[in-house]
Amino acid sequence: MTKKRPDIIAIDGPAASGKSTLGRRLADALGYLFFDTGVMYRAVTWLVLQRGINIRDEKSVSALAEETPIDVLPASRSDGRACDVLMDGKDITWETRRPEVDANVSLISTYAGVRHAMSEQQRRIGLRGKVVMVGRDIGTVVLPQADLKIYLDASAPERARRRHQENLARGIESNYDEILARMIERDYIDSTRDVAPLRAADDAVVLNSDELSADEVFEQAWRLSE
Ligand code: DC
Q: Whose C-alpha lies nearest to ligand 1, atom 6?
């Protein structure tokens, strides 16, 4: 008897653990939609900063998240993006990657109202199936019914080293110690928040990529999806 391929695949894990690289490859190989849910939290953060709203004003930030539809669509350009992020029809894909968004997104994603609004939108897309969804709480909260759950982990120094190398390769100024400090701070916020903290679902397969290349991580995940 042939086993059915998982229809919904959830990949969770800390920042820079290689989730997006893995998710994208897996989605390409399976012909599935790749959906990086972090971009939605980034989009709200960008809008909050753009509007000059105080990021500590939980009520206003949550209200904005609730009234703003965000579209995540397959990439329309090959400029390195994994998908298009649209807000009110405007392409804000690269705005969501700005350093000021990096610095504030973890705080905004602790707000229950923001999480509720984002999770609803994500669930609607995920339930259509044939999807690889990447985030922090996909297997635990957004789609606990996912057919395959992977928790991709790596140590903070290794993740900081990779981010540092990526920056250097792109010609961006980069300081390893600073990246590591920010990484540890974001891990702390993401994993200790009250609502939907970062953790592996009980039925997730945990992969640690410290000693594995991107190809090896992909091969292991591919085997799990067969
Ligand atoms: O994966 P990323 O770095 O783009 O995620 C940005 C932030 O969004 C991260 O600090 C935590 C938050 N996030 C979340 O809380 N839940 C998700 N499903 C995805 C991201």
A: 38
